[in-house]
Amino acid sequence: MNNDSPLKAIMVVTVTALVCSVLVTVAAVTLRPIQRAYEDLERIRFIVRVSGLSESVETMSDLEVIGAFQDLEIRLVDLDRGAFDSSNNPDTFDAREAATEPQFRVAIPAELDVASLGTRSSLETVYLLRDGETLQRVILPIHGQGMWSTIYGFLALESDLNTIAALTISEQGETPGIGDVILNPEWQARWQGRRLYDEQRSLRFRISREVVAANTEDASYHVDGLAGATVTLNGVMNLMRYWFGPHGYSRFLQNLSETEGS
Ligand SMILES: Cc1cc2nc3c(=O)[nH]c(=O)nc-3n(C[C@H](O)[C@H](O)[C@H](O)COP(=O)(O)O)c2cc1C
Fold first, then answer.
1. Dist. CA 233 → ligand 1 center (Å)
2. Pocket lined around ligand 1, Cβ cut-off 6 Å
3. How do residues 126-140 score in pLDDT, each as one tens digit?
């Protein structure tokens, strides 16, 4: 066939496009499990960070992190019942995916949707740290809308199921240098020891730039806001209101504290 023939040009372009698309598809399919494994490892590192199992997760090898993670008990929680679920496998359940599946998707009533989620999974994966039979910590995944992105993190509670042991933010897409101050370890450290609920079981926790006198009852529920990032921090406050409110973990925490809390 003549090199100047339009037919030959079309054939060469079509074959090249086909070969390239096959190569890209094969690469995407074969690399997906590896990418997934890296994502899982990242998530596990964040969970171990708030578990209290190690002071220096940053310097731990991947194998050490996986070893520490195996000390945690992984359970699924049915949020509406506020009870553990035993009919699904917690090792493979993915709450983020489940929030899009008809079997697990729960629409959040507009008046309760303070974190602007729309839907959530009926089940969430939680992580329990025990010393023998005694509950030491519970680690709860949380997420909600920031200024530009969905913010994901984990909140660890002490065995009283009310006092914050640690917060970590695992994913966010807020503006670097502005909203991403929520990643600041010093700010996250200020969450430690703060409480969620008061004696009447009202959610008192809040993030604000109000000056709250130290050593007062109010101070025990209060984390300082950060100047210039109020929109992102409102997002974090709202996700706390959602996840520790009646449509989130509140019922589960109450039930668990009756059976296992200290
Ligand atoms: C380009 C741009 C990006 C911004 N990104 C963020 C952000 O990620 N998070 C945030 O809270 N505020 C961000 N802001 C600032 C907000 O618009 C708002 O001024 C700020 O949250 C108010 O905080 P303040 O009341 O502490 O001053 C951004 C502003 C601009 C112009």
1. 10
2. 147-148, 174-175, 178-179, 227-232
3. 999 999 999 999 999
Nearest CA to ligand 1 atom 7: 179
Give the Å distance between the CA of 229 and the centre of ligand 1. Answer: 5
- Do the strands 123-131 and 134-145 form a parallel or antiparallel pair, or are they unpaired? antiparallel
Which is the closest atom of ligand 1 to the Cα of 226? 26
Give per-residue pLDDT as tens, 245-258: 999 999 999 999 99
Q: Do 60 and 54 contact (CB within 8 A), yes or no?
A: yes
Nearest-atom number in ligand 1 for the CA of 225 is 26
What are the residue ranges spanned by the domains of the chain? Answer: 1-71, 72-259
Cβ-count burial 65-80 (b if 16+ within 10 Å, e if not): beebbeebebbbbbbe
Residue nearest ligand 1's atom 1 by CA: 175
Pairing outcome for strands 123-131 and 119-121: unpaired
| All residues at 6 or more sequence positions from 96 whose CB lies less than 8 Å from its CB, including other chains | 121
Residue 25 has pLDDT above 80, yes or no: yes
Are the C-beta atoms of 129 and 137 separated by less than 8 Å?
Answer: yes
Pair of tokens at residue 213? 């006198």
Ligand 1 atom with the smallest distance to the CA of 234 is 11
